[in-house]
């Protein structure tokens, strides 16, 4: 491990480790979340808590969808529900795949992208159709539209895209959805939406309100810093949500929902997170310009950087206690690494090490 970072203490990690591989929030959770969770500990012997209903009400307000005032705790079994919570967005995406995909169905998902729905689809006997990105690493919606046929059941949009950090505008995505057959479900994954600074970015909530075939999934792991609690949720019109409910069991714990409810009460923490991400990415961009490295400007929690031998660079960084992703091995993006944002010290530790390795 390099002496540069051997004494560095990242929030929630062992001394000396700089983990820029998992897109975690380096600030940790809001202090309000910690306070709320500690207070909830005194009532952990009780199943129900008003925070559970409050969470549904706050999420409905956030996304501009109706909240069923007749919901009983925790409100997951209402035929009129627009929102469903689960143990991470991946858990909900699994239920969505089971609800809407059958053998011989096709799922359109760009490559490279998150790819989780592709894996679920193939597990259920459906076929994944991977369309290419544009040369600028953005979504090629024309290619996706051209891939639609009579077997197409779902189109997957990760916005911002992972691992590229590029976004779709609201105008472009709205036009794409409007031109699809109504039988095609559009899954919009907005895991990194809280970090977006570009106002032109597509609004998944508006698409859900306007279209019966759109399902939005989000997570509290990134912008809110609750990765360890594994809370995600889906938003869709009741007809679709009723179908998802048939394949999605279980309820997150009262403690987890208390944490999420408190997180929503502190939007300033998300704004601090966004500023931290922006400052970290600016440090990466400046270093790339200095070293003459190609990179992809990102609206998400990470940056793709072309380094030549991605495996050797990732290994060299790991030897120094700095973890990044070899994008060549993970997504077939030749010569690139994906590095998550960190706090200022973590970002500079990374760039110092990168200079040393590439020297």
**What fold name goes in the CATH topology slot of the largest domain?**
Aspartate Aminotransferase, domain 2
Quaternary structure classification: single chain
CATH 4th-level superfamily of the largest domain = Type I PLP-dependent aspartate aminotransferase-like (Major domain)
The count of domains is 2
Structural class by secondary-structure content: alpha/beta
Note the beta-strand portion: 5-15%
Given this structure, which CATH class of the largest domain is correct? Alpha Beta
Order of helix and strand elements from N to C terminus: EHHEHEHEHEHEHEEHHHEEHEEHEH
Instruction: Please tell me what the overall shape is.
Output: globular
Q: Could you explain how this protein is built, in words?
A:
With 359 residues, the chain is of the alpha/beta class. The protein folds into 2 domains: 18-28 and 268-358, Alpha-Beta Complex (Aspartate Aminotransferase, domain 1), CATH 3.90.1150.10; 31-264, Type I PLP-dependent aspartate aminotransferase-like (Major domain) (Aspartate Aminotransferase, domain 2), CATH 3.40.640.10. It is built from 13 helices and 13 strands. The strands form 3 sheets. It has a 7-stranded mixed beta sheet with strand order 2-8-7-6-5-3-4, sandwiched between helices. Helix 7 (204-210) links the parallel strand 6 (185-189) and strand 7. The protein is globular and about 60 Å long. The mean pLDDT is 93.
